[in-house]
């Protein structure tokens, strides 16, 4: 792949619509001991309902409620344990998937603000395009933390909001998904 290939890769991350959300409410999924069901304000008219397989890592509603998180918001709704999940709460996890931590946004981050990357522009893809073009399969492996726990694209470009970077309380090489 010459320069053209590289340019094509460079912007795949801009197809993601990662926005700041606030978990208003969390409850244990009635039929799954892995899933939390959450109601998350991402600045739209109504909160998103999202299910996350995090019960092993966060045991209490109080670990989630009132927390600002990063939500991948342009996914097709899909049922998780029968619960229609309208997006994904982003976390950093190690290879073994036995350490999983929420991605953290600056304390004063604005609900609904979209993550951007220095020097990369692009409109988010539609949920249908994300599914069809296998965007996640391509881009998720490239979202990693650096030694300071900053969430990055390819270890190079930090997840940026207007008032700072997105981080996780982990070391280098954790995957963000």
Written overview of the protein:
This protein has 177 residues and is an alpha+beta fold. Helix content is 13%, strand content 31%. It has four helices and 15 strands. It has helices at 3-10, 61-64, 127-132, 135-139; strands spanning 18-28, 36-41, 48-52, 68-72, 78-80, 83-85, 88-89, 91-93, 100-102, 143-145, 151-153, 157-158, 160-161, 164-165, 175-176. The strands form five sheets. It has a five-stranded antiparallel β-sheet. Strand 5 and strand 6 form a beta hairpin. The chain is globular, with a radius of gyration of 16 Å. Mean pLDDT is 93; it is low at 1-10.
Helical content band: 10-25%
Which H/E pattern describes the elements? HEEEHEEEEEEHHEEEEEE
Q: Order of strands across the widest beta sheet?
A: 3-2-1-4-7
| Overall radius of gyration | 16 Å
Q: Give the low-confidence spans.
A: 1-10
Find the structural class using helix and strand composition. alpha+beta
Helical run tally: 4
How many beta-strand elements?
15
Largest sheet report: 5 strands, antiparallel
> What is the percentage of strand-forming residues?
25-35%
- Overall form: globular
Span from first to last CA? 27 Å
Tell me, rounded to a whole number, the average pLDDT.
Answer: 93
